[in-house]
């Protein structure tokens, strides 16, 4: 690590789904709670994975112009409505679908997230930089107690990561040059795009994102400024008590 | 007051300069600290008032298209550079001008603001809705300990209050209908514009904004949903312990 890194950096911007919150366990738990009221259990782990995969597919369609711009809430709902019949849940009514879709506003943080963010915030400006829409991120922060200085979202720029404008727009709104921002994420492709836009990068592998022993995005030949196992360890590496 | 008001409202959006922070005393104090290092004191109260007035004038020019869009930081600096010679401060160098301009990032809250906001945040989504740029508002919140859920700014919409798109854009980003938002401000014209956009309104008169016995924007025939002398009293009126 470059010894001058902690003082050059002024703001840390965080990917959220998978990096700060454990979306998969949360969605499975919300699904099971809902499914238990409906009768026989659906395969909620498989539904959670298919939902997440469908979200990436829909986001790519938006990026290519095959779908109009819409928020992640709208994308999530679109994917959910497609999936429910395949999982024996076609009977879910509008209120239940809306409740389930908003489970993404109620995701639980990884065990280190709140304490790590609080420490990092004591020295740096801390902001989300997620493809999740602003209201989702605000509701999640209130629900999970995530101490952001600022909620930044792809929604503010009308395009999704990894579009460079999202990273550059975050730097512009926070009033810093791109190298004064460090992107913190569990996904090498997100960090590679941030790096191409001039940001510093911190890789936080989250091996349990897709469940114990589950899939992880390969690192390939990507290089990061920092690698830390969690957000408390990131604070340690940056020398923030 | 409408007894159902507290439950209909989901988010409170706050004007900041004058409503939450005491810009005038802060600018005078920063100016005097700077002036003391330079030699004879300038008339900092008059400079603060002229600076604020010049800001309103420049913002109106942007709204009319006579000036290009720029952030409040840029507007403040433009006005400051015009004013300094008139106050015997033409010798202020670039570093001192930049430091003084960023005094707007370091404004002190009114005595009730931090405690009042913390209470209100326990029930409602709380966000800035200021013409100040995002970085100014983020830095101010860190400096003053203002506990926002979300920093919203005219900058996100490329136009200044009282343009209706600023109020409607805040509702859209927070995921609520306009009547589920309450605009909280010390300035009747801001509240009148929010009301025309469909928001609820809370008027917080700040008789000391322009100094003891100083100017206040006339209320005229404007009607507000709530009137409270400060943010703690607003929490009382909304029944938030």
Describe this structure as you would to a colleague.
Two copies of one chain form a homodimer. The first copy, chain A, is of the alpha/beta class. The first copy, chain A, folds into two domains: 149 residues, Rossmann fold; 82 residues, DNA polymerase, domain 1 (Orthogonal Bundle), CATH 1.10.150. A six-stranded parallel sheet of chain A has the order 3-2-1-4-5-6, with helices on both faces. The longest helix of chain A has 20 residues. The two termini of chain A are 18 Å apart. Chains A and B meet through helix 7 of A and helix 7 of B.
Question: Which features does this protein show?
Answer:
homodimer; 241 residues; alpha/beta; Rossmann fold; DNA polymerase, domain 1; 2 domains; six-stranded parallel β-sheet; 10 helices; 6 strands
Give me the CATH superfamily of the largest domain in chain A: HAD superfamily/HAD-like
The main pleated sheet of chain A reads as: 6 strands, parallel
**Second-tier CATH architecture of the largest domain in chain A:** 3-Layer(aba) Sandwich
Query: What is the beta-strand fraction of chain A?
Result: 5-15%
Radius of gyration of chain A: 18 Å
Helix/strand-derived category of chain A reads: alpha/beta
**Domains counted in the coordinates of chain A: how many?**
2
Distance between the termini of chain A: 18 Å
What is the CATH level 1 assignment of the largest domain in chain A?
Alpha Beta
How much is the average pLDDT of chain A? Answer: 95
Helix segment count of chain A?
10
Q: What is the third-level CATH name, the topology of the largest domain in chain A?
A: Rossmann fold
Q: For the largest interface in this structure, which chains are involved and how many residues does each contribute? A: A-B, 20 and 20 residues
Q: Order of helices and strands of chain A, N to C? A: HEHHHHHEHEHEHEEH
């Amino acid at each position: 690590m470059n010894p001058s890194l902690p003082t050059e950096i002024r703001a840390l911007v965080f990917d959220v789904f998978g990096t700060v919150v454990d979306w998969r366990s949360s969605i499975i738990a919300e699904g099971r709670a809902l499914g238990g009221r409906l009768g026989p259990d659906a395969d909620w782990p498989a539904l959670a994975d298919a939902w997440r995969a469908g979200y990436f597919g829909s986001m790519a369609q938006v990026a290519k112009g095959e779908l109009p711009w819409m928020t992640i809430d709208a994308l999530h709902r679109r994917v959910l409505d497609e999936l429910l019949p395949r999982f024996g849940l076609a009977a879910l009514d509008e209120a239940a679908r809306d409740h389930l879709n908003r489970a993404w506003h109620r995701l639980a943080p990884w065990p280190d997230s709140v304490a790590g963010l609080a420490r990092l915030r004591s020295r740096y400006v801390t902001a989300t930089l997620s493809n999740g829409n602003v209201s989702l991120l605000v509701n999640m922060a209130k629900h999970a107690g995530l101490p952001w200085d600022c909620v930044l979202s792809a929604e503010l720029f009308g395009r999704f990561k990894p579009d460079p404008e999202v990273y550059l727009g975050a730097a512009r709104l926070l009033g810093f040059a791109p190298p004064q921002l460090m992107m913190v994420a569990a996904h090498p492709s997100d960090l590679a795009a941030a790096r191409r836009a001039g940001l510093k990068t911190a890789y936080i592998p989250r091996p349990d994102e897709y469940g114990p022993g589950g899939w992880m995005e390969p690192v390939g030949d990507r290089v990061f400024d920092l690698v830390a196992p969690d957000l408390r360890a990131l604070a340690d590496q940056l020398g923030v008590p």
